[in-house]
Amino acid sequence: MKIIILLFCFILPLAFADLQVGFYGSSCPKAESIVKQLVQKRFNRDKSITAGLLRLHFHDCAVRGCDASILINSTDNTSEINSGTNRDVRGFDLIDEVKESLEATCPSTVSCADIITLATRDAVALSGGPKYTVPTGRRDGTVSSIDEVNIPGPGSPVSITTQFFASKGITTQEMVTLFGAHTVGVGHCSFFSNRLSSPDQTMDPTLKAKLVKLCGNATNDPATPLDQKTSFLVDNQFYKQILVKKAVLQIDQQLALDTSTKGFVTDFASNDDKFQTSFADAMIKMGKIDVLVGKDGEIRKKCSAFNNRD
Questions:
Q1: Binding site residues for Ca(2+), as ranges?
Q2: What is the pLDDT of residue 216?
Q3: Beta strand segments in the chain, E
Q4: Which residues does the annotation say bind Ca(2+) 2 (predicted)?
Q5: What is the mean pLDDT of the chain?
């Protein structure tokens, strides 16, 4: 038994043997600075890009792992990108822009999966969030199917959402931390209209009146910030608001009410430093979900298409 345990402890770290900080130090020294420069340029004219990248990163990692499979355009089969769950995911053009620049500097070297991870990290820092270091060395996946997208929706109960995150190796506390990304996100009326059409004692009356007016008879599915106070800052304001029933999405409000998650919400609401540190740690961990390293996968030349396999 001791031998088996020792072997397990020895082998486990090898899964991330090729995922390391500064992976492109010699193969493409300017890789991270190129990503940062282009993210900064986009952020200067569109601060909402942080929310876009956070969602893109999560929706990628939550399916086959962090392998950029969400970026693949549909051809012979329907890819993840065309799932209804990914309907409003954005940031694809920025990833393409970064990839084009990197290909000109270091052809077939930097993966699209790493670009997503690095770009999200840089955008979080630009939005007042934590500055953290992420290991790189991910490779791009060679499969993308709409049938594999099963991410819980905004109306899913906490229990189902917790089970989903647990299946990815994310603890309940880390899940609550990652939901903090909603501090810079938006929700379309179609995501929460069910909370407006009937009595909902879990929603602040003033917020509800505001949302009813916003959605009304609108036909273009307008959106509202999930953090009604500091919608472009990565801070703990989101947690403070959901504690006083000012969550826009049902799942967000339930995090502050469910006994399994309320304690974490309360903790983060009262301590921004703890949230910032926890958010960085959770993002780093999420970025390691089922990554491809070594000779697995490929380094795409174009993020929206698999390499020519002829």
A1: 60, 63, 65, 67, 69, 80, 183, 227, 230, 235
A2: 87
A3: 186-188, 223-225
A4: 183, 227, 230, 235
A5: 93
